[in-house]
Amino acid sequence: MDSKQGKRETNRRGEIMLKAVFSRFGEEIELTDELWQYDFGQKIQVTGIELPDVCEVHFQYDNLTETKTVTGYKQEDALIIDIPNEALTSRGIIKLYIYLVSSEEGRTVNVAIMHVNRRMKPEGFEVPEDIDLFHHTLLAAGEYMQQAKNAKENSETAADRAESARDLAEGSARTAQGSAEAAEQAKNEAVEAAESIKNAKVPTKTSELENDSGFLAADTEISWGRKDGTFAGMQSVALGLDVEAFGDNSFAEGNNTVAYGDNSHAEGYQSQATGQNAHSEGENNIASGQGAHAEGGAGTTASDKYTHAEGYGITASAQAAHSEGYNTYATGKYSHVEGYNSKAAADMAHAENYGTEASGKNSHAEGLISIAKGNGSHAEGFGTVASGKYQHVQGKYNVEDTEGRYAHIVGSGSDAERRNIHTLDWEGNAEYAGDVTATVKGKKVPMSTIAGVLLQPGAAAHNAIYREKYLGDTVTAEQAAAIADGSFEDLFIGDYWTMGGVNYRIADFDYWYRTGFPEASRVEKHHAVIVPDTSIATGQMNGSNTTSGGYRNSLAKSKMNDTISALPPEIRSRLLVHNALLDGTWTETSVDLMNEIMVYGCYILADNSNKQTSENRQLSLFRMSPQARYAGGNYWLRNYANATEFTLVSYYGDASKDAATSTYGIRPVFAITGENR
Asked: HSE (CB half, 13 Å, CA atoms) of 182?
């Protein structure tokens, strides 16, 4: 391959174009003068070899799967070729093939290679339509006619001069006569050129032929094949046996194919493209929706807007649906199905593999005969069924959850007997059909064994487990019984009731059990310690900035009855009354402020002169979930920091302090028993 400079030159009409100079037939050259992305209207001038007045040129570039054909035309002993505007929209290599056709053969005689440089796309750029052959015909005819007009004007000017210059009359007359002859000759040449270009590509209509050798119809359509093939659309094409191209710009080829829609394409055997911009190929396929595509065999149908069906016995019948494989059906809008005997029967559903069905909106079914019924559900595996909304089922032959109780199910059954080996409900509770093992120091230990140790009845075991389960809007009889007998069955740290819009959360079990003074006042009732998630009131510690008398004699303590009155009746009726050591004195109480030890596990800002208390360990809630200290705002603790300030928990859960007259939240601590008082 030779590399040659593609030097841009300007022709007689002022057009700047790339020049390709060949030295012989069969030569391949590379033009070094590069093109740029998003240029348009570019031309190539080919010289150096003898070419017909009109010849076929093939272009190959990255945007195509096959070459694009254009017409080159002779101008001033050079072949002028328009570069397709589409070829200049992407960076890469363009190959130009000069193709000569005769009645016996067609062959490539020369090749030119060009390079398109990359650059940014101009704002609002749209690719202009390429100029067709008939436009070039008009250009050529127009040029010849202009020559004739110029010659005629020259003759008239010469005649005027002859009349005013008698001494040159004879010579001027001869000049005028010659110019007239030239004008007439130019006119004849223009007409002859136009006819030559037209006749080079436009023979007679099929209807005028007596055999099966039809070619181009000059005005509207093209036909090739049997003359009884029907073609009626503007710029339509019909190729083959009894084919019909009725739509404008339609294309039908093969045997008994029909392209009814504008810009439609039908090919193969008895295939139909009846929708606008539709495409049908193969055997007995129908693309009837706008922009639809059907291909394959045996009745593949794409019957709605922008549908796509490919394979055997396929149906895509809803807008933008996609179906492929064997006997698959996409009947929901924007649905997708692929495989064998599968269905996507709801909007945005997806079914794949064998015998699967996605019948819930946005559902997904895959595997073997799996079904996704619930909206947003997912079924996979063998014979699985996902009936609940947003449910995920996997495995094989699960027990169908028609009530939608579970978020996740793993099946392990058979067609004769369905069963589940794992379920996970929407609260995060998991169940297993078999035992679950955990590796402890390199040894596998069944979870049942571990649970048997951890879940022994009593406060010790239940204070070690954080769960955070919603317990309802009242204390049930079962829950009250579990508190009363000290088993605390199905009650764990972090669990909560919601009453009056407030979450009352379990913070500890048996915190005050067998404490108190004197002996007769010791607490012998099992109880659950409760702390609300937020402050349920606001107030001052004192009316003046003093901590004298501590919390026991504070304004906040004296108003604690008001706080008790704000509690829900279900709580008030079960409050534990006990003796607590408050500021060095045993005091009967039920509802109080927390202290620093309860919240943080130690004193932080409390005054060292009086730290006596019976609440001398951290509540399990704050030990296992420190973020539980956060309550959406500052709240008081019972300890005082100095003569004027009490301690508090800040907005961020940190230990802090402030003057006794400040107003902050009241977040109390109390316990409930299993009995109603």
From this structure: 16
Q: What is the pLDDT of residue 233?
A: 74
pLDDT score at 126: 85
* Cβ atoms within 10 Å, residue 169: 13
Residue 35 near residue 88 (C-beta atoms within 8 A): yes
pLDDT at residue 202 in the model: 34
Q: Do 548 and 639 sit in the same domain of this protein?
A: yes
Q: Return d(Cα 292, Cα 183) in angstroms, integer.
A: 56
Last residue in a domain, options 184, 201, 218:
201
pLDDT score of 439 = 76
In terms of residues, how long is the chain?
Answer: 677
In a shared domain, residues 196 and 212? no
* Cβ neighbours of residue 140 closer than 8 Å, sequence gap 6 or more: 73, 75, 193, 194, 197
| pLDDT tens per residue, range 329-345 | 999 999 999 999 999 99
- Cα separation, 50 vs 48, in Å, equals 7
**Dihedral angle at the C-alpha atoms of 182, 185, 190, 195, nearest 10 degrees?**
-170
Return the bridge partners of 445, or none.
Answer: 438
Strands 230-231 and 244-245: parallel
610-639: average pLDDT:
92
Range of the domain at 544: 477-672
Amino acid at 132: D
**φ/ψ (deg, to 5) at 623:** -70, -40
Which is it for the CA torsion 334, 340, 345, 351, positive or negative?
Answer: negative
pLDDT per residue as tens digits for the range 87-126: 888 888 999 999 998 878 889 999 999 999 988 889 888 8
Q: Are 76 and 11 in contact (CB under 8 A)?
A: yes
Share the mean pLDDT of the chain. 84
- Token code pair at residue 288: 């009837």
Rounded CA separation 337/340 (Å): 9
pLDDT at 12: 53
Q: What does the block give as tokens for 271?
A: 């295939």
Q: What is the 3-state secondary structure (H, E, C) of 159-185?
A: HHHHHHCHHHHHHHHHHHHHHHHHHHH
H or E stretch at 27: none
Three-state DSSP state, 601 = coil
Residue 107 to residue 214: CA distance in whole angstroms? 22
The DSSP result for 51-107, as a single string, is --SEEEEEEE-TT-SS-EEEEEEEETTEEEEEPPGGGGGSSEEEEEEEEEE-SS-EE
What gap in Å lies between CA 359 and CA 345, rounded to an integer?
5
Cβ contact 44:29 at 8 Å: no
469-504 burial: b if 16+ Cβ within 10 Å, else e: eebeeebeeebbebbeebbbeebbbbbbbbbeebeb
Q: How far is CA 340 from the centre of its chain?
A: 26
Please tell me the distance from the alpha carbon of residue 561 to that of residue 584, in angstroms, as a whole number.
22
Same domain assignment for residues 32 and 141 = no
Considering 115, 131, 147, which residue would you say is the last residue of a domain?
131
